[in-house]
Design a protein that fits this description.
There is one protein chain. This protein is mainly alpha-helical. The N and C termini lie close together (11 Å).
Amino acid sequence: MLTTKRVVIATICGFIFGLVCMYLASSNPKATESLSTAMKWTIILSRTLMGFTLGISALRLAWWLHAVVIGIITSLPMAAPVVHDMNIAIGTVVLGIVYALLTELITTVLFKAKAAGRK
């Protein structure tokens, strides 16, 4: 059964990691141009949706594997526009997995809000 506690905690974690991700993306001192406001909001919303997706997902996987799968799936749309710079694209997906693992760890292990169908 889907619990409100899990969805809220995972979404809040996703939002916080979205802020972290946006800060990291805009912290390049050698950047020729700064991130646009639209891109900053896209980063925040993408990571918030990752948290929401983790919260509502009912995949019957171990919590860490669940996080890896959702992290990859939700990071690919952010990595696609920068695929010409492979370092940034790979970093986007890897950090998406890290943010998803941390979100799932906080939600499932720390707050004990298990996903639907898991014991």
